[in-house]
Amino acid sequence: MSTNCNNDNTNHDDLDAIFKQKRVLRTQVRKTLRAIDPSLRSQQDNAIQDIILGAPWFKSSHGLCAYISCSALREVDTFKLLSQVLQPPPSGGKKLYVPRVEDKNSNMRMLNISRIDDLVANSMNILEPAPVDADGNAREDVLQANEPVDILLLPGLAFDKSGRRLGRGGGYYDTFLKNYHDLAETRNWKQPLLVALSYSQQILDDGVIPVTSTDVLVDALVSPEGVIPISSAAFNRYH
């Protein structure tokens, strides 16, 4: 897992400037995403998911965290991929955790599901797992699991080839990723590979995306053109 090496002593004015840059960039990227022809977006969705499903580093994984795509947010679709993961072995059989937002303070859990029907629409009409299963049992939280996950599939608004990721501003993923990183270190687990899914139009020139010390870098990007390994961990697994 990559971490950012920015100076934690960034002053308040500098942070304000960075947050303003991010807001402007988010507006620009959202406009770009709205302009993508739906049929082209669908082609890219299928290409990205097929690349992941065929990748050796994905095939060899045992457990993963992945986001549930929301078409209204124009996120790269994950339903074909997740449906495959939830199939019985040998085509599926991986342990899958998906996000559930807990509050407005950047707290998000990743809960285990075993079928797509475990998802319900929240007040924002975004699918997420119910906190308990059909039998009334609490779903397993990945931060309380006894085994590590190998991969985290991440959404975002924009990315670059140095690993920078522009989220939607809620801080949910950066907070979760830090918590999981700390857990893996405590338990002496191998850090999971952080893989962002990106339309071609979301990959920006290096240096365009501003970052702070709390922003987490991704290890690899998957776009319709293929896998872009970024960190040494990604290069090692990719090759």
TrEMBL record:
InterPro entries: FTHF_cligase, FTHF_cligase-like_sf, NagB/RpiA_transferase-like. Pfam families: 5-FTHF_cyc-lig. GO terms for molecular function: 5-formyltetrahydrofolate cyclo-ligase activity; ATP binding; metal ion binding. It catalyses: (6S)-5-formyl-5,6,7,8-tetrahydrofolate + ATP = (6R)-5,10-methenyltetrahydrofolate + ADP + phosphate. Coiled coil: none annotated. Substrate binds at residues 68, 75. Its cofactor is Mg(2+). It comes from the Eukaryota. One of its GO terms (cellular component) is mitochondrion. ATP binds at residues 22-26, 165-173. GO terms for biological process: folic acid-containing compound biosynthetic process; tetrahydrofolate interconversion. Its EC number is 6.3.3.2. Keywords: ATP-binding, Magnesium, Metal-binding, Nucleotide-binding. PANTHER family: 5-FORMYLTETRAHYDROFOLATE CYCLO-LIGASE (PTHR23407:SF1), ATPASE INHIBITOR/5-FORMYLTETRAHYDROFOLATE CYCLO-LIGASE (PTHR23407). Belongs to the 5-formyltetrahydrofolate cyclo-ligase family. This is 5-formyltetrahydrofolate cyclo-ligase. It comes from Trifolium subterraneum (Subterranean clover).
